[in-house]
Amino acid sequence: MGLFQNKTALTFFYKAFANNGIPEKVTIDKSGANIAALDQINDDYINCGEITRIEKRCSKYLNNRIEQDHRFIKRRTNPMLGFKSFSSAINTLTGLELMRIIQKKQVINGRGLSNWQIFKSLAA
C-alpha cells in the first residue's frame, strides 16, 4: 500500500464525514488503504477526545446491494461523458433517482396507481 493511496482514502473519509457527519460504523471492502485510513482517523479523533471509535465492517459482499443499485444510473450517465455543471448533475440525478424509486414501487401512497400517474402527481 502506497502513501498516495492512504492520503486519497483519508481525504475521501474526511470529506464524507464533513458533509454527512461522523458515522458509528463504516462498511468497506478489504482494501488496505481504507483500513489504514480508518485506523488513522480513529487514532486522531480519539486522541482529541472528539468521538468514540468508528467501527469497521470489512466484507466484500456487504456493500454489493448498494453498488448494484447504482448500475442503473451509471448506465444512463456514462454515455453523457460527464456533466458540464454541478446543477445539471443534481437535476439529472434527481430525476433518474425519482424514476428508479417509482419503478421499484418505493413510493408511499402509490398503491393502485400506474407509474405515469405517480410521476404526474409528484411533478404537479
UniProtKB/TrEMBL annotation:
Name of a matching Pfam family: DDE_Tnp_IS240
Residues of the DDE domain: 7-105
InterPro entries: DDE_dom, IS_Transposase
Coiled-coil spans in chain: none
Protein name: DDE-type integrase/transposase/recombinase
Organism: Plebeiibacterium sediminum
